[in-house]
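Predict the 3D structure for this chain.
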Amino acid sequence: MAKLKLMGAFMRRAIALIFLMIPACEGAKSPEEAAGASVVQVTDGFRFGGGVIITDQHVLSQAAMVRNVEDASVVDSTGKGSRARVTGRNMELNSAMLFIEAGSLPKVKIGDSTTVVEGSPVATQLFDAQGKPTLKTGTFKGWRYSEGRAYMETDLDTPETNAGAGVIGADGKLIGLQSFKMGSKLTYVLPIEYLTNGPKALTASALGEKKDNPGFVAKRAEAEKHTEALPTPLTYDNLSYEFAFSKTALVGVVRMLDKKDAPVHGQPLKWKFDAIDEAQTKKILGEGTLDATNVKWATSPEALAEVTKSMTDSYGEAWVKENLAPYEFGELRWRLPFAPICGKVTDKEVHTLVLTLADGRATQAMSFNDMVNICAAQEEGEGATMEKDWGFTGEPATAPKAPKAAPTKKRKRGR
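Done. Predicted structure below.
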């Protein structure tokens, strides 16, 4: 009899423990499950952005989406739409909080960004214009600092329009919101602590006042040392450039990575010069291939060391090993004489120049708003120094006079 009583007591305790464990197990979600349930689309009817449900009635999103409106529509992964009222904005952090009267939303648990381990999985969700959801997964690459704030770098392959979407950590909890991108798989997350912690936190009215833990106190302190913005990442696909003018030519430089086993810097460099009028009608004023005497390749150990340090400091050693080390870094210096273009420009148009490498990579359009005066050679410009320093000593092509020169304006070197 005593044994039966003991067994009965044991069974009751075991059953009680099972019931206590069930909610805990049900509450644990994978990053994908949490993202699928709580990451939403927010729209003002014209534009679309990301969001995340943080209480059964509150949603975080990007402030730019609701800058000039007082309400918006929130769509979840089931296609259900809800009207939401804007209750707060932080334009500096590009974040906003919205309130949904109906409630009963599938909220995400708030996480701790400082516990995320480098290489661990993260997840988010994006939506197309029709509200169809797509889960996206990636990994946390490390902490980065830009303009006085700490950010979490991930390799999530999401568009810039997904800003405001919640990013979920390995424990199924919210670690931050997508903030900005520096490349296709360089997606930066604003840690959730910037929105939840402190007396003036955006979420204080919904979640109460929270304080930083020691780990995030350290992140804020480190971020304050980095007031500069992250530099544009140097990758094989991205070309950076500067341009100016002399009295005889447009002059500039393309900073680039080139394949060591199949370089293109010694192959023909094509150019195209367009004019765009007030009606945005574009026409080609000239195109061709730069003469070999007007193209020079320059590289140096000092320049490579400088760019390697800059990229390592900003993006980490692993990124540099994958994206920079396999290539040769250098400057492709170029000069486009005025002769083929200046006789065709007018002061009724703006003008653009695009350079294209032999492998198809091209610069963005370099814009010139004052080509009439540039062609009139009223100012020497910084291009004259470039020509001299870079050894462009070939006979300058005679430039046909532009139709009419407007009053001279000061101009800075383009970038």
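Confidence is low (pLDDT under 50) at residues 1-7, 14-26, 405-415.
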